Every structure is written in structure tokens, then in C-alpha cells.
């Protein structure tokens, strides 16, 4: 209870102070042209140090270089609450024994940077190693899941403090919604995918969701942790000294620990050529294979649904590069994935 009150007090204080001192220049700079230059000008006007370079990494994320050579990362958030939750959560992780991530800087204390509907925070700059992290080797897959396991060991201790701050994660609800959206988009998707492929995808999803509902009690019997929520390879960061870090906690929520492992399995299975035997070789997955809920969930084509739904939402199907990427994701290992699903079904029906 004491820890929970502490987190609430920190959030309330920093949000209250930040809202009072935020500098909103949305009206001053309208439109999207010259965003980079406007942001640089704004930062130099409102920070107590001189910025000599502002390098974009991705949308609303920049590397900032000061005149003395010091660098940090500037990242925008859609609300002050989101920013402060990230600051406090990463601080909590390190305090409880998980040092494998970045830190937020607290400067400048006298301002809350608010630029064109984004609240900006200051993150530690990490020098990337020569060998970026990808799910392209079994050693990397193993190292990633070991780090994720360490994260869960610590994040489980933080559930009580954050249970009224973070949303709850409901796997079945999310996947049903993703399934419905894919169904709604079929009229467009059918221009690119054969009817038989779409039918297989829908059949796999229906079978998976039906099984998950039957095993719902088993799903929620697993310990609750703070889930990372996005265990894509780019959220594992290999530093210049070879250390692996876990970054970007924008999608954290509270839910059964199995949820992150399911997502991790889905991310590495393409590298494993959709081999059930290879997946069971990872020690961290073995206990879950004793539960039908894990097997049912492995069959759900969450990656394919996610990417097609995004493609339709963003109307990126006219972008040949993006369309080719989603088509390759869907079709390149389709037959191997089909065999994998048949093996899962046989394992469930055989009671093994």
C-alpha cells in the first residue's frame, strides 16, 4: 500500500506541476512543414543548453547532440501521464533489480516540454553495438527470452504498485477484436490473397479462440506480471559493449505472464521455420506446453492479422514495398505454418 501511494503521489505531483509550466506552441507553429527546424528552434529557446544537432530516429524520436558533445534521446508522448508513467516505471525497474534498460533524465526541472501536441521526455543515449539484435540465430532467441524472463521476475513485484495505473491485458478480447477487423477487411484483402489462404487463416483463428475460451480459467491461473507488450526484435538493444537491454515500454499492461511468452514465440517461430520441436528446445517455453491454452494460442495467426489490418487502416496497400512485406509474411512459410498447426492440433487431440 505504501509503494502504491508513492507511485500515485509522484504521478500526481509531476503531472500537476508539468501542466502548470508546459509551454504550448501549437498555435505558433502550424502545419507539418519544417517540423524538424521548428522543434530545434523551440528546444534552443526553452532549454538551458545549446543544441547543435537534432537527428530523427523515427516519428517523434530524436537524438540530441549538445555543443559539448553530450547526447541524449528526445521522445514524444501523446500525454503527460504517458510520459511520467514511463519515467516512473523505468525508475521502479532499476530500483527493484532490473538494470537492463535505459534511464530517463530529470532535466529540465523548470519546464515541461510540450511541442505540437507532444510531451517530450529525455532518455539516456545508448551506443548501439556493431551487431544489432535480430531473431536470426538461436543464440539471440535464447538470450532475448532469458532477458524477458528477468524482466518478468522484477515486474511481478511491481504489479501491486501499478494495478490502478496500468490497464489490464485481456488476450482473448484483443484477439477477437483483431479477428473481427480482419473479417471486415476481407473484401479488400481478397484482391491480394487467394480465397483458400484467407479461409485457412479464419479457420485457424476460430479454432484457436474457441479453445482459448474453453481454457480461459487456465489462462488466468498464470501469475500476473507487468507485461512488456511488444517483444519485437527492435525492442531488444545490443549496446557497444555487447550487453542486451530491453527498451520501449509504451505498451506495458498487467496480465498473465504467458501473454508475453506467446508473443515472443510468435516472433521467433519464422526463424525456427515453424518447428514445434525447435520451440520446445527453449527451457522457458517447456512448462507452458503442459497447458492446452498455450497450444491453442500458438495457432492464432496474430502477426498476419495485425499486419493486414494495419496495411488497410493506413491505406498502405498502394505502397509496393509495404505490400510486398506483408505478402511475404503471409505466404513465404505458409505451408510450414500449416504443418505446425496440424501438429499442435494432433497434440491436443492426442492428449500429449
From TrEMBL:
Q: Which Gene3D superfamilies match?
A: 3.90.1200.10
Q: Which InterPro entries match?
A: Aminoglycoside_PTrfase, Kinase-like_dom_sf
Domain of life of the source: Bacteria
Classification via Pfam families: APH (PF01636)
Which intervals hold domain Aminoglycoside phosphotransferase? Answer: 167-265
Q: What protein does this entry describe? A: Phosphotransferase
Amino acid at each position: 500500500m505504501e509503494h502504491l501511494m508513492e507511485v500515485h503521489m509522484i504521478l500526481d505531483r509531476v503531472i500537476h506541476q508539468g501542466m502548470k509550466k508546459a509551454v504550448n506552441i501549437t498555435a505558433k507553429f502550424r502545419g507539418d512543414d519544417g517540423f524538424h527546424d521548428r522543434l530545434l528552434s523551440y528546444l534552443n529557446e526553452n532549454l538551458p543548453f545549446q543544441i547543435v544537432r537534432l537527428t530523427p530516429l523515427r516519428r517523434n524520436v530524436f537524438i540530441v547532440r549538445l555543443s559539448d558533445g553530450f547526447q541524449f534521446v528526445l521522445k514524444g508522448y501523446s500525454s503527460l501521464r504517458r510520459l511520467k508513467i514511463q519515467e516512473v516505471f523505468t525508475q521502479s525497474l532499476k530500483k527493484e533489480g532490473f538494470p537492463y534498460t535505459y534511464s530517463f533524465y530529470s532535466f529540465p526541472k523548470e519546464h515541461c516540454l510540450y511541442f505540437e501536441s507532444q510531451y517530450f521526455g529525455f532518455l539516456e543515449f545508448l551506443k548501439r553495438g556493431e551487431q544489432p539484435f535480430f531473431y536470426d540465430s538461436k543464440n539471440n532467441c535464447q538470450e532475448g527470452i532469458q532477458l524477458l524472463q528477468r524482466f518478468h521476475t522484477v515486474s511481478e513485484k511491481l504489479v501491486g504498485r501499478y494495478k490502478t495505473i496500468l490497464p489490464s491485458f485481456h488476450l482473448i478480447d484483443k484477439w477477437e477484436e483483431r479477428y473481427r477487423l480482419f473479417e471486415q477487411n476481407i473484401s479488400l484483402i481478397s484482391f491480394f490473397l487467394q480465397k483458400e489462404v484467407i479461409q485457412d487463416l479464419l479457420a485457424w483463428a476460430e479454432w484457436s479462440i474457441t479453445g482459448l475460451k474453453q481454457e480461459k480459467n487456465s489462462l488466468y491461473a498464470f501469475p500476473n506480471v507487468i507485461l512488456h507488450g511488444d517483444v519485437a526484435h527492435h525492442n531488444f538493444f545490443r549496446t557497444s559493449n555487447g550487453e542486451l537491454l530491453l527498451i520501449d515500454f509504451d505498451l506495458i499492461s498487467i496480465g498473465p505472464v504467458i501473454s508475453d511468452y506467446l508473443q515472443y514465440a510468435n516472433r521467433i517461430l519464422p526463424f525456427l521455420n515453424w518447428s514445434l520441436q525447435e520451440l520446445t528446445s527453449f527451457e522457458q517455453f517447456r512448462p507452458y506446453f503442459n497447458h492446452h491454452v498455450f497450444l491453442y494460442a500458438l495457432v492464432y495467426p496474430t502477426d498476419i492479422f495485425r499486419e493486414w489490418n494495419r496495411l488497410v487502416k493506413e491505406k498502405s496497400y498502394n505502397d509496393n514495398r509495404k505490400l510486398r512485406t506483408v505478402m511475404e509474411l503471409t505466404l513465404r512459410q505458409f505451408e510450414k505454418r500449416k504443418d505446425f498447426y496440424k501438429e499442435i492440433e494432433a497434440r491436443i487431440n492426442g492428449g500429449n
